[in-house]
Structures are given as structure tokens and as C-alpha cells.
């Protein structure tokens, strides 16, 4: 096991990793930017070190700054959290070259799974159904048009690198495709430094379901169930739940077992998430793998009792998994609500400002992962995630009931949040009966969705 | 290598340099240089005086373009400079994490009232983002008491000291020949921080005499850490008030 871990991230995930380090008895050093000097993780860390200015490129995205910070503070491993450098194989390689361990897949594994198109081919060869897509990366507009014609409109333009919906567009015609290509290229270039794009056939009325896997370096792997992340706003996840209401138990087992079998056979290591699209008939298609801890990991933890960050650290340290699928018991139903600093009334404009009061909800089956505290100033430089409210219940209706109570207790003063959106979702018939798809919010627009929820 | 002295002209008469940030570099052919942002000008009194007019002219002609250049180069979220009864704030929308344009630049009088709208004439809202606070983030928040200006700005307050800060995380070493009492000029290299074998220079933020070395050779330092304290000597030798 490691002696001392450098946490190279911020916000709620820095705090989440810190908590597990504490429980494992591992030292925790928090690397922070100037904008995060007063963050909760910095306050709680054994040691904190400023690595650069607010600008992420010179702090959380600066491999030299992070590695140097790890070395001068005597750390032997780096936890990258999510986003930033968490799936960067070059960073993982540099980490190893400096005698440190990257907490995540080893660099050669990250490299193997770095290309989305390549990963789809690899996992298709190991038995996962994939969604029809373009033949590799789009070389130029002409190639894009030809491939879109072959796949059939509508198609989804996706960047090879990154995630979070940036650089993604659904188009319904050649004309739309040509216009969107330029935008997607520049978005992908500015967000991920890589403008390569590919196409996928667009499934109308689809659901986004992902499988959490845990795989050690000795070829032992388990899944920790699936998560339904279909409640999205412009490709950004808003609410996630487990299990998905969209699949029968048989299909669920096929999905989860198929995912872990394929990924173990393909040589994956550490924790990871395989994302699938599920159509109306319950058919699932693999789309991509995320080689990191995910924002929505707590719902899997609530159902399984497994600390996924601890598993990530143990596996990176070379420990064997130590249990089999039989030992993974998934119980009840869990739902996560992403609390964002966004003004629902003004096109979800991100907010920054000082938190006046913060009162987290509680009670049985309620977990709040948040870095907020009264007096904390939310800086304007990073994403708008303020925390995650996670509820658990023995079944879906009781989880929803707990969510209503918890959301009604939550107080964040001084800052506008997207809590009204969550309350509207909890009142929506399609959400309550579980029949929603990824266009639940975008079909009518999130603002209209919230207004409609308030009226009824 | 990001921390080379900038070719952006210095705000040589700013009241105090309170940012720890090294000067940002303006990329030579930055593709993000969009049309100028909307600027909004506010004025403390209903009837502008001649001094106010001079100050407004100076703000618009000299300080604002400079701030915008720095702002773009540095990819900051917000930048605010207060001086001589005015403050200038340049801000990006909070939803642009890797923005390419500047949202708005506003110049406001001390009482926050608008008196004249410049540029495209668009009125910027009082803000969806908070005012930058000194020390938070990379904002250049040079906050000083406003006082009437004849257009030449205020000299650094007498007795204020300058501090050269660390440009990165790593191991520090003072440059040979730099010791307490050394006279240095703005931009001089005072030492370096070894970041994974790459030397990043510690630069004098102004003309002065080395008053104190705050870190020892071989010491691990963090970004922005104070390394060398200077007693300022004025470059232009302005007439100081007693």
C-alpha cells in the first residue's frame, strides 16, 4: 500500500478521495490552484501544496506541476480524480517515469483504450455489441458525408477524445452535418486539444446505461451493477440511478456479465465504466469506456457497500481483488442528483459566488458528497458541480420518496442552484414510471420542463 | 517556459502588485483575439471634471487595452484594477472555462453609477459573477485608495516592499551574486525553481534592493510562495509627497 497520495484534483472529488485515504491510513496531500486555496479538501489535507494559478492549463492540467508537487511532498502515488489528467496516458507514463504510481489503469492500458473507435473494435472482438459507426476517424467533410449516408441519418458527431458532451452534435441532414463539423472540430480542439471526430448512428428514444467494473492486474474482475444516466441536459448527466428501470433482470445480467467478461479479456485493469446505449427493445450497444472514477460512482457504492475509490487505490498498489462476483451484493435502489451552480431560469448559466449557508440533508439512506461550507467562495474557473445528493431505498419508489424529503431539506444560500430542476424531475410522470429516455429534458427544453413541473 | 517576462507593457504605475501571478505571456498571434469587448464606463460624479476626463481617457486608451491583453493571455476569469477613484473590471462569463472572448469590461466610478457608455454601448449587467476578491484566483486585484489623479497615476506607497514569488512548484535556488543588499532591476533573474529538471526563473517584480531572502537553496517551494523581498527604489524618481 502507498504511504502518501497526492490528490491532483479539486471540489467534491478531492474531498471524496481524501476521505478514503484517511480510512485506509494513507497520507493525503492536496494539490490545489490559487483559486482553491480555501477549499475544504485543502483545509482537511495532511498537507496542501499550491501548484499554479486558477487557469487549469497551468495547474490541474499541468503534468510537470503535479509531478513536481508529488515529488517535493514525498508522495508515492497520484490520484487524478475525474476530468483533468485522469485518463491521460502520457501523464500516467510520466508518473511512472518519476517512480510514482498513477492511481488508475497503467499507462499501456490507458493507451490501449484511449481511442474510442479503437476501443469499440477491441471490445466488439470480445463479444460486445457496438453501435454502427464511421469507419475510423473522419478524414474530411467528404468522408463524413459519405459515412453519414452509409449509416443513415440522424447521426451523432462525437470527438475521439474527452467527454462531457463537448464537441458532440446530433444532425439530421447533410447540410446540418457540414455546419456542425466545423463547430464540433473547434469545440473538441479547445476542450481536449484533439479535433478528431467520428460518427455514430443516432438511436432515437435511447437510454444511457453504464456498467461499473473492477478488475485487478491478475485478471480477476467483477461488475458492480449498472447505472442509468438517461436524465441528461445537452449530453450532461443530471440524475443517475441504479438499477436501470429499462431492463429486465435477464437483460441486466447479460449486460453486466458481458461487460466484465469482455473488458477482462481485453486486458483492462483497475476500475472503469463501460457506457452503453439501450434502445426501446432492450438491445444494448457499447459506446465507450471511462478509465477513471466517475461522478456518479456513489450510487454503485450505496447498493454494493464497496468503496470504489479504495478499490482503485488497492488495485493500483498491486493488490489482488480478493473476492468474486458472488460476493458483490447489489441491494435496493439508489439515485444521485448533481447539484450544480446553475441558474435554471437563465439558460442554466453557471454561477459563482459565496455560499451564505449550507445545510446538507440527512436521515437513513441519504448521502451528501459536497465540498461546500458556509463562507466558501465558489470560484468561476471550473465546472459548476457543487456536490451530489445520493439517496438509497429498498426499492425505487422509496428512494424517490427519500429524494423528495432530502431535496426539501437542502439549503444552499448565496448561490443559485439547479435544485428546482431536480424537484421538477421528481414530479415528472415519465421519471416516476421509469419510462424516460435521454431526451426527457431536451425535448421541451430544461427551462420549460421546470416550468411545467411547477404548474402541475 | 510560460513564465518568461511578458512583452506586454507593464502597468508601471499601478498602486500595488498584489497578484502572485507571474506576468502572463501574450501569444504573438493569438487566434482568440476577437473584436474588442464592450466597455462600460462609470463615473463618480454627475458632472465630470477635467481631471476625471483625463482619467477616463487614460483608462480607455491605456489601461483597458492592456488589461484586456493580459486577461486574454492569462485565461483568467476576472480581473479588476482599482485606482484613483476608479476601478476597471474585465470579466468572462462564468460558463466559459476555456473562453475565447472577453465578455465585458466595465469601468465604474467609486459609487458604482454609470455616467457614460463607451464602445458598442451595450450595458453590461451588474454581473452574474461576483466581484473578484484580492488573493482569490489570478485576478490582478490591485486595490488602493482612490485619490484624484492628474493622469500620471499614483506611485507605490512609500515603504511598501516588493516580493518575488515562485513561478512553480519545485526546488528553489538563489542566483549566484544575489544576496541581501543586492541592487536589482525589474525583470532581473533573482533565482530559479527547478520543476522536474526545468529551471523556471524567479523574476524581480520591480526595481529594488534585496531586503531578505525568504527561502534557502534546495528548499521545496510551492507556486506563488514569497521568495525574495525587495525594498523598492523608484525607477522614474517621481516627486513623492512627504
Describe the structure in brief.
Chain A is α+β, with helices and mostly antiparallel strands and 456 residues long. Chain A is built from 15 helices and 22 strands. In chain A, 34% of the residues lie in helices and 25% in strands.
Features:
heterodimer; A: 456 residues; alpha+beta; eight-stranded antiparallel sheet; five-stranded parallel sheet; 15 helices; 34% helix; B: 242 residues; mainly beta; six-stranded mixed sheet; four-stranded antiparallel sheet; 1 helix; globular; disordered N terminus
Q: What is the helical fraction of chain A, as a range of percent?
A: 25-40%
Shape of chain B: globular
Largest sheet descriptor of chain B? 6 strands, mixed
Oligomer status: heterodimer
What summary fits the major beta sheet of chain A?
8 strands, antiparallel
Low-confidence blocks of residues of chain B: 1-48, 93-158, 238-242
% residues in beta strands of chain B = 25-35%
Mean pLDDT across the residues of chain B is 58
Secondary-structure map:
The complex is a heterodimer of chains A (456) and B (242).
Chain A: E1 4-7, H1 11-24, E2 27-33, H2 40-44, E3 47-52, H3 63-72, E4 77-79, H4 89-97, E5 101-102, H5 107-112, H6 116-125, H7 141-151, E6 155-159, E7 169-171, H8 174-192, E8 197-201, E9 207-215, E10 221-233, E11 236-242, H9 249-265, E12 270-278, E13 284-290, H10 297-304, H11 308-316, E14 333-340, E15 342-343, E16 349-350, E17 353-354, E18 358-359, E19 366-370, E20 377-378, E21 385-393, H12 396-409, E22 411-412, H13 419-426, H14 429-432, H15 446-455
Parallel strand pairs in A: 1-2, 1-4, 2-3, 4-5
Antiparallel strand pairs in A: 6-7, 6-8, 9-10, 9-12, 10-11, 11-14, 12-13, 14-21, 15-16, 17-20, 18-22, 19-21
Helix pairs in contact in A: 7-8, 12-13, 13-15
Chain B: E1 38-42, H1 50-74, E2 78-83, E3 86-91, E4 104-109, E5 114-117, E6 141-142, E7 162-165, E8 170-174, E9 183-184, E10 189-195, E11 198-203, E12 208-213, E13 220-221, E14 226-232
Parallel strand pairs in B: 1-4, 2-6
Antiparallel strand pairs in B: 1-5, 2-3, 3-4, 7-14, 8-10, 8-13, 9-12, 10-11, 12-14
Amino acid at each position: 500500500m502507498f504511504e502518501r497520495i497526492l490528490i491532483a484534483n479539486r471540489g467534491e472529488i478531492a474531498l471524496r478521495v481524501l476521505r478514503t485515504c484517511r480510512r485506509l491510513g494513507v497520507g493525503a496531500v492536496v494539490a490545489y490552484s490559487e483559486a482553491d486555496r480555501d477549499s475544504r479538501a485543502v483545509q482537511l489535507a495532511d498537507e496542501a501544496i499550491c501548484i499554479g494559478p486558477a487557469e487549469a492549463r497551468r495547474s490541474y492540467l499541468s503534468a510537470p506541476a503535479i509531478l513536481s508537487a508529488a515529488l517535493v511532498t514525498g508522495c508515492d502515488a497520484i490520484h487524478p480524480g475525474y476530468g483533468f489528467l485522469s485518463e491521460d496516458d502520457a501523464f500516467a507514463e510520466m508518473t511512472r517515469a518519476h517512480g510514482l504510481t498513477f492511481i488508475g489503469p497503467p499507462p499501456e492500458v490507458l493507451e490501449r483504450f484511449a481511442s474510442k473507435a479503437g476501443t469499440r473494435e477491441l471490445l466488439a472482438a470480445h463479444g460486445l455489441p457496438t453501435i454502427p459507426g464511421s469507419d475510423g476517424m473522419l478524414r474530411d467533410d467528404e468522408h463524413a458525408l459519405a459515412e453519414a449516408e452509409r449509416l443513415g441519418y440522424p447521426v451523432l458527431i462525437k470527438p475521439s477524445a474527452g467527454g462531457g458532451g463537448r464537441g458532440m452534435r446530433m444532425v439530421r441532414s447533410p447540410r446540418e452535418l457540414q455546419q456542425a463539423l466545423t463547430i464540433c472540430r473547434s469545440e473538441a480542439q479547445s476542450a481536449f486539444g484533439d479535433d478528431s471526430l467520428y460518427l455514430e448512428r443516432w438511436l432515437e428514444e435511447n437510454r444511457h446505461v453504464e456498467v461499473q467494473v473492477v478488475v485487478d492486474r491478475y485478471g480477476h474482475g467483477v461488475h458492480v451493477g449498472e447505472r442509468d444516466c438517461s436524465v441528461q441536459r445537452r449530453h450532461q448527466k443530471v440524475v443517475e440511478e441504479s438499477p436501470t428501470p429499462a431492463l429486465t433482470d435477464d437483460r441486466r445480467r447479460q449486460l453486466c456479465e458481458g461487460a466484465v467478461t469482455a473488458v477482462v479479456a481485453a486486458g483492462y485493469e483497475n476500475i472503469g465504466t463501460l457506457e452503453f446505449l439501450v434502445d426501446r427493445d432492450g438491445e444494448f450497444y457499447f459506446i465507450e469506456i471511462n478509465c477513471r472514477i466517475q461522478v456518479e460512482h456513489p450510487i454503485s457504492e450505496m447498493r454494493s457497500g464497496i468503496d470504489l475509490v479504495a478499490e482503485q487505490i488497492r488495485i493500483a498498489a498491486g493488490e489482488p481483488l480478493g473476492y468474486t462476483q458472488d460476493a458483490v451484493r447489489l441491494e435496493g435502489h439508489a439515485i444521485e442528483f448533481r447539484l450544480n451552480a446553475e441558474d435554471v431560469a437563465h439558460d442554466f448559466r453557471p454561477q459563482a459566488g459565496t455560499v451564505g449557508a449550507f445545510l446538507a440533508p440527512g436521515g437513513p439512506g441519504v448521502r451528501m458528497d459536497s465540498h461546500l461550507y458556509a463562507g466558501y467562495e465558489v470560484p468561476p474557473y471550473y465546472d459548476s458541480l457543487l456536490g451530489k445528493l445520493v439517496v438509497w431505498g429498498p426499492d425505487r419508489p422509496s428512494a424517490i420518496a427519500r429524494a423528495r424529503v432530502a431535496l426539501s431539506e437542502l439549503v444552499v444560500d448565496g448561490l443559485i442552484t439547479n435544485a428546482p430542476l431536480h424537484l421538477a424531475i421528481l414530479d415528472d410522470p415519465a421519471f416516476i414510471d421509469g419510462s424516460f429516455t435521454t431526451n426527457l429534458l431536451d425535448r421541451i427544453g430544461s427551462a420549460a420542463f421546470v416550468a411545467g413541473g411547477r404548474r402541475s | 517556459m510560460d513564465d518568461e517576462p511578458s512583452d506586454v507593457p507593464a502597468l508601471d504605475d499601478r498602486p500595488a502588485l498584489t497578484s502572485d501571478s507571474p506576468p502572463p505571456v501574450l501569444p504573438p498571434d493569438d487566434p482568440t483575439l476577437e473584436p474588442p469587448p464592450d466597455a462600460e464606463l462609470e463615473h463618480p460624479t454627475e458632472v465630470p471634471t477635467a481631471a476625471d476626463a483625463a482619467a477616463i481617457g487614460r483608462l480607455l486608451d491605456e489601461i483597458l487595452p492592456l488589461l484586456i491583453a493580459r486577461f486574454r493571455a492569462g485565461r483568467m476569469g476576472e480581473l479588476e484594477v482599482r485606482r484613483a477613484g476608479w476601478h476597471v473590471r474585465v470579466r468572462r462569463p462564468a460558463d466559459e472555462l476555456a473562453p475565447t472572448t472577453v465578455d465585458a469590461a466595465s469601468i465604474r466610478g467609486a459609487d458604482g453609477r454609470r455616467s457614460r457608455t463607451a464602445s458598442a454601448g451595450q450595458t453590461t449587467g451588474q454581473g452574474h459573477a461576483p466581484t473578484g476578491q484580492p488573493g482569490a484566483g489570478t485576478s490582478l486585484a490591485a486595490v488602493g485608495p482612490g485619490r484624484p489623479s492628474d493622469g500620471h497615476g499614483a506611485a507605490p506607497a512609500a515603504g511598501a516592499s516588493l516580493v518575488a514569488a515562485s513561478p512553480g512548484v519545485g526546488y528553489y535556488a538563489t542566483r549566484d551574486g544575489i544576496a541581501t543588499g543586492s541592487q536589482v532591476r525589474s525583470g532581473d533573474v533573482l533565482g530559479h525553481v527547478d520543476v522536474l529538471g526545468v529551471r523556471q526563473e524567479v523574476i524581480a517584480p520591480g526595481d529594488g534592493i534585496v531586503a531578505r531572502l525568504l527561502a534557502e537553496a534546495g528548499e521545496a517551494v510551492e507556486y506563488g510562495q514569497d521568495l525574495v523581498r525587495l525594498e523598492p527604489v523608484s525607477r522614474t524618481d517621481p516627486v513623492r509627497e512627504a
